[in-house]
Specification:
Arc Repressor Mutant, subunit A, WH_DNA-bd_sf, DNA-binding, alpha+beta, Winged helix-turn-helix DNA-binding protein, WH-like_DNA-bd_sf, DNA binding, 3-stranded antiparallel beta sheet, about 55% helix
Length: about 90
């Protein structure tokens, strides 16, 4: 993602990166679940999710247990890109 004209994960605020990591670690969560796991305010989580959706790393689905809520999850491309970046960072450390 680095070196492109599009905004990437590295360009996001720390709150959005934290939400990304919470979703990466926990899998699919509702906004309320992300708030509880990240200990960020609901407003901050909404903003972070908006930013993550804008760059195309988070998908939003209907939460069937409660249709008033949405379920957020990382898409497969985000998981694959994050793994490649982590591998590249480890190679640089050697």
């Amino acid at each position: 993602m680095a070196g492109t004209d599009e905004e990437g994960l590295d360009d996001l605020p720390p709150s959005a990166k934290l939400v990304f990591k919470v979703l990466e670690y926990n899998g699919s969560l509702t906004q309320k679940g992300i708030v509880e796991e990240s200990m960020l305010s609901a407003r901050t989580v909404r903003y972070a999710l908006e930013r993550l959706e804008d760059i195309g790393v988070v998908d939003e689905d209907v939460y069937f247990a409660d249709a008033r809520q949405n379920l957020y999850q990382l898409n497969e491309a985000a998981l694959a890109d994050d793994g490649k970046e982590a591998d590249a960072a480890c190679v640089e450390c050697d």
